[in-house]
Amino acid sequence: MKIILASSSPRRRELLLNLNLKFKVIKSEVKESVDINSNPKTVAMSLAFQKALDVANKVEESEIVIGADTIVVFDNEILGKPNDEEDAFNMIKKLSGKYHEVITGISVIRLSDNKKVVDCEITKVKMKDIDDYKIRRYIDTKEPMDKAGSYGIQGYGSLLVEKIEGDYFSVVGLPVAKLEEILSRHFGINII
Ligand SMILES: Cc1cn([C@H]2C[C@H](O)[C@@H](COP(=O)(O)OP(=O)(O)OP(=O)(O)O)O2)c(=O)[nH]c1=O
Predict the structure, then answer these.
(1) CATH number for the domain including 166?
(2) How many structural domains are present in the chain?
């Protein structure tokens, strides 16, 4: 049995490594286009599914392929990765002092027996009140630029967060407990 992580995200790779699972990484070539009017859960799950399926179609049918997608939702608006520093500034400014949701879609596919599982995890995050100067200094670290919602809770972004309700690992990019449930229930893989 082989497991493939269909992701270019170093955070996802690290979270999976923590579980001592043997896996390979193959990046998907899905172009992430988001229809901002669709339901956020559907967007995260659909992107996760597309990533997993894209890679599943390129490898042996018996391989188990994992895909994920993380989005930030504030006031029904989907915030993906920032286009530039100004975009990052505006996103963090929006999130400042308020609650938002981080949704990570997760999909696991094995084509040999046509198993295709999709689910998502939702975490609430409350950001501290952050003044403009601090937002600029945070952006100067470059940390926001490749992250949904323009922050990384695992890095300097930890200094911006007041509290969270739900799965921390899902905010970082991979809901590992949910993944374990899926692997155990649908694929007969028990990690511990
Ligand atoms: C909110 C938040 C997001 N992120 C990251 C997780 C994801 O890597 C990224 C969202 O982009 P994604 O499109 O979910 O993933 P990716 O492009 O990095 O990797 P791939 O599509 O190849 O799997 O934002 C953090 O690292 N910390 C956070 O606190």
Answers:
(1) 3.90.950.10
(2) 1
